[in-house]
Predict the structure.
Amino acid sequence: MGNEKNSTKSTVNDTNSYLQSLMVTKILQEPVMRCAIHALDLPQGSHGLDVGCGIGLQAIMLAEAVGKTGDVTGVDLSPEFLAHARSIAKKAGISEQVSFQEGDMNNLPFDNDTFDWVWSANCAGYAPGEPLPLLKELARVVKPGGSVIILVWSSQQLLPGYPVLEAHLNATSSGIAPFAEGMAPELHFTRMIGWFHRAGMEEVTVQTFTGDVYAPLSGEMRSALTALIEMRWVDVKEELSEGDRAEFQRLCLAESPEFILDLPDYYAFYTYSMFRGQVAGCL
């Protein structure tokens, strides 16, 4: 998330900022992720792959779900993220069930039919480009009859009482990402059912999971929602009308005396959509 920077110093700062945002917003993501993982009913003792594992938060939950005889391998392009993932797994006491390695989701460093299932949250499906080769690559490393699972952030309502402003914010370049102007509609992640079928997968299903937040907000939850607003609508001011810009600054900036999170009746929700397909063949 965010714009590519030219200098190494800027890249490091961006990485550190994003890592901090991931940790702060964990309180929002974890309950929904756990519900999604529970709904999968992953086989005990199975071997899974977490593609785009980031700092390993989902890999740990997945490892807990498959039990002590199962294991999960996390793959990510960022050495910084992987270092944090190993540290978090160690602190969680689950290092023996979880391993992490550097790798590209478009060219996974594993043989065919290696895993019982592959999972990717907020990664596969968000990347720009043609999705079909990626889906086929994920399916390649899964045993016949196993699952490819992709979870994506699919919607939110963070500004109760201001639906027009929120709609305008969601129509900015940041708000509609990873969709972009001129992009073919069938390449949007919400059309993922078609991707799965074209990749040759069977028994394709989709399920949506909702997280709810309402006042009174704890300090931890307030920080998480503040970080979410900052992550969701990045550098949007230039794309807003003068009136929307003023409302955005009034309602969405933490330093504003009318910051929306201070409403005594504040309520928000957000959704994740989980797509699952079965790799053709029999175990």
Notes: The chain has ten helices and seven strands. Residues 42 and 65 are 7 Å apart (CA to CA). The first helix runs from residue 8 to 24. The mean pLDDT is 91.
